Amino acid sequence: MIKIKEEWRDIINYEGSYQISSYGRVKSLNRTIVLNNGKERKLEGKIRAYGTDKAGYPITRLSTVNKGATTFTIHRLMAKAFLEFRDELYVNHIDGDKSNNKVSNLEMISASDNIKHAFKLGLCNQSGERNGYSKLTKEDVIDIKLMLRKGMKNKDIATKYPVGKVNISQIKRGYTWKHIIDSKEMNYAC
How much is the pTM? Predict the structure, then answer.
């Protein structure tokens, strides 16, 4: 297997402070900064640790004395440094793995193509609790369906859960949580 040499480039708007590599790693550079009180401080460069955002994308915080701290997703920093970045396009992970931010795994595509790609890889099958934005559990929905069957009003049910009466109506009509089968035994799929 041929190993491709890691290439480092300046991060746009953070030149001289931070760089990003073709492997998706971020490092701070050795530098001296002047603090607000006028004193100088030497900073030693190092590889930055990552966190993840709510959607599961790796993120890092970059800071300067003048700009303060800002959080960025790694794949967008990569696109700006290594691809022909355009705001109207999306940065797509070719293999569908959000943590694989190597330049060879990223491409700029339209919103439509990004959605098609996600469906093709099976990344959009996140219904119910698997959806990171879900406020309800399967058990909550089963209880809600039982309460609906008993004739409780949507607004009364909504007061018991972190959702509104419109959400209860959507469950009742089968627009959401349709993988939870409403039967007398309250069996459910998944």
Answer: 0.65
